[in-house]
Design a protein that fits this description.
By secondary structure, this protein is of the alpha/beta class. It has a domain of 178 residues: Nucleotidyltransferase, domain 5 (2-Layer Sandwich), CATH 3.30.420.40. The strands form 3 sheets. It has a 6-stranded mixed beta sheet with strand order 1-11-10-9-12-13, sandwiched between helices. It has a 5-stranded mixed beta sheet with strand order 4-3-2-5-8. It has a two-stranded antiparallel sheet with strand order 6-7. 46% of the residues lie in helices and 17% in strands. The chain has 16 helices and 13 strands.
């Protein structure tokens, strides 16, 4: 009996030791996995680094590319497109003008009544419609007939007070946010479709001519007086209310910038110099690329798997379409190599673009003590039911790294524009106030991103110069701005003098 008891005790002790060893090994494995998670986080943070010196190098590279793009077609990754907008709104415009804003799968029709210097924008209203999917891949006639019909209905329902004087056509500003090679203020040929559109018989054609034919078919007596993209519309809308607006930046699903250039500084401009001496340039800065850009293996993989590999690199690390996807890719790496969400990789985490930037913004802004918003988002979107506070903190830190990099790079781009304009230092002539009209959902709703962008630019230009650089949110610039440009380029301007 005594031997049996001793044997049992020995077996029991061995079992306890084995269990203890298993616990130790489990803890060691867990500790090792967490160390790997931290390693991935720190490596990513280092690769995303944007010290001030690097940002200034990027700004200088932006200036070089701007000069090259202005010098010749195809001379730069920046297209630097001449907009033919040489007559920005002054505030003196009066009358009723219309805008058609086609930026994607939805479009809007606007009516804006202007009251001159004293009246400003007296009245505005709009209607919105979706483009049926079949028209996005159909024919040019079908698409523009549909748009013209909606415009005809909008005009037919308007009050009599908006009727034009006898012998005068209604005038329209057309915001067309697709790549166009412009040939005048109210003509331009489509380079290619984006955003899910694929209408082969439209590529290379004048988009204004196609719209005008559709308006005629639908019996709408309206002249297209200005063709612009959303960034130029934002600049025009900002200039109408503030004469110091000289730059516009869109930070939304995509990103772009436009600015006012001296016409004589455009070598490829062969026409007579405009009376104003100025010309708005559409930079298409989303395609900017330089060796100093802090790209990571996650960015390179995203680019390689995109519909346009090698293009829009700046856009892919600064704009709203991609920030959430970068976050997903880093979290997937952590799930695969560090088991951050448990032994199994969550299937939803493997779905591209399932994490959108608004989700990322909500998690980044989570101010609850237990980061409840982060936990809820991970549960609702990725179907990860339980996460520790430690894991949630990692998610927030990743959001901060990605948003900070994007915002600081956007600030470097703006610094490049200010340098090109000679407005980056008081000594270079930048003592006058420069207002930057900003628009886009990323800028408007992602507070941490917006604050970081503005703070970074102020730091880059220095305290003295920061007082002369002002950010201004231009609400609905792409729509109202198009109507304002129709007014400032009206066929009937001479009749008002």
């Amino acid at each position: 009996m005594r031997k049996a008891a001793v044997g049992a005790a020995v077996v029991g002790a061995a079992a306890v030791c084995a269990v203890a060893a298993l616990v130790v090994r489990h803890r060691m494995r867990k500790s090792s996995k967490w160390a790997r998670c931290v390693s991935i986080l720190r490596e990513f943070e280092e690769k995303c680094g944007t010290p001030d010196a690097k940002l200034k190098q990027l700004a200088d590279a932006m200036v070089v590319e701007m000069h090259a793009g202005l010098a010749s077609e195809g001379g730069s990754k920046l297209k630097m497109l001449i907009s033919y907008v040489d007559n920005l709104p002054t505030g003196d415009e009066d009358g009723v003008f219309y805008a058609l804003d086609l930026g994607g799968t939805n479009f809007r029709v606007l009516r804006v009544q202007l009251g001159g210097k004293a009246g400003g924008i007296v009245h505005q209203e709009f209607t919105e419609a979706s483009i049926p999917p079949n028209l996005m891949v159909g024919t040019a006639d079908a698409l523009f007939d549909y748009i013209a019909e909606k415009l005809a209905n909008f005009v037919a329902e308007e009050e009599q007070k908006f009727n034009q004087p006898p012998g005068r056509q209604r005038e329209l500003g057309f915001t067309f946010s697709f790549p166009v090679m412009q040939t005048s203020i109210n003509s331009g040929n489509l380079i290619r479709w984006t955003k899910g559109f694929s209408i082969d018989d439209m590529v290379g054609k004048d988009v204004v001519a196609e719209l005008s034919k559709a308006l005629e078919r639908k019996g709408v007596d309206m002249r297209v007086s200005a063709l612009v993209n959303d960034t130029i519309g934002t600049l025009a809308g900002g200039r109408y209310s503030n004469k110091d607006v000289a730059v516009a930046v869109i930070l939304g699903t995509g990103t772009n910038a436009a600015y006012v250039e001296r016409a004589q500084a455009i070598p490829k401009w062969h026409g007579p110099l405009p009376k104003s001496g100025e010309m708005v340039i559409n930079m298409e800065w989303g395609n900017f690329r330089a060796s100093h850009l802090p790209l990571t293996k996650y960015d390179n993989a995203l680019d390689a798997e995109s519909l346009n590999p090698g293009e829009q690199i700046f856009e892919k690390i600064t704009s709203g379409m991609y920030l959430g996807e970068i976050l997903r890719r880093v979290l997937l790496k952590m799930a695969e190599e560090a088991a951050i969400f448990g032994d199994e990789v969550p299937p939803k985490l493997q779905c591209p673009f399932i994490l959108r930037t608004p989700h990322m913004s909500a998690m980044h802004h989570d101010a609850t003590p237990d980061l409840k918003v982060v936990g809820d988002k991970l549960k609702d979107i990725l179907e990860i039911p339980n996460t520790s506070l430690k894991v949630r903190r990692v998610v927030v830190e990743l959001c901060n790294i990605i948003a900070t990099r994007g915002a600081r790079l956007a600030a470097a781009g703006i610094l490049g524009i200010l340098k090109k304009m000679g407005r980056d230092t008081p000594r270079s002539g930048g003592s006058a106030k420069t207002v930057i009209a900003m628009d886009g959902g990323l800028y408007e709703h992602y507070t941490e991103y917006r604050n970081c962008l503005e703070t970074t630019l102020n730091e880059l230009v220095g305290e003295e110069m920061a007082a002369h650089v002002v950010f201004e949110h231009s609400v609905d610039g792409s729509g109202i701005g198009a109507a304002l440009l129709a007014a400032s380029h009206s066929l009937y301007l001479e009749d008002k003098s």
